[in-house]
Amino acid sequence: MTDTTTKPSVLFVCVHNAGRSQMAAGFLRNIAGDRIEVRSAGSMPADQINPIAVDAMAELGIDITAEAPKVLTTEAVQASDVVITMGCGDACPFFPGKRYEDWELDDPAGQGIDSVRPIRDDIRGRIEQLVSELV
């Protein structure tokens, strides 16, 4: 049984929490299972997840339809071991002792599926690397 006090926690943050961060969270849940706690949030959350991001993930058998954009809170950052930002700049609060990474990824908002697939695949590669480092 996994001790939840030692399970690493990752928070993905982008502006709208509708595309990149939701795809990253979906990949991490899919690849790591229950070995890593997964959170995502946005500095200015959208009303819904980007449907093209949902479609791009569905092509790989990952269902993110049940997710919804969430507002970034200080508590979410404090509760996370790793904070990965995706284009939200200085909107993310900083706490000493946390691991921060900034992933420069194109925003899938307003783009078609052919443009979103490479973003999705880039995120998957980064998630695979992250899982290998954390578990």
UniProtKB/TrEMBL annotation:
UniProt entry keywords in alphabetical sequence: Arsenical resistance
Gene3D superfamilies, A to Z: 3.40.50.2300
InterPro entries reported for this sequence: Ptyr_pPase, Ptyr_pPase_sf
Source organism (scientific name): Microbacterium aerolatum
Boundaries of every Phosphotyrosine protein phosphatase I domain copy: 8-133
Name of the featured protein: Arsenate reductase
One biological process term in Gene Ontology: response to arsenic-containing substance
Superkingdom to which the source organism belongs: Bacteria
A Pfam family that the UniProt record links to this protein: LMWPc
UniProt xrefs under CDD domains: LMWP_ArsC (cd16345)
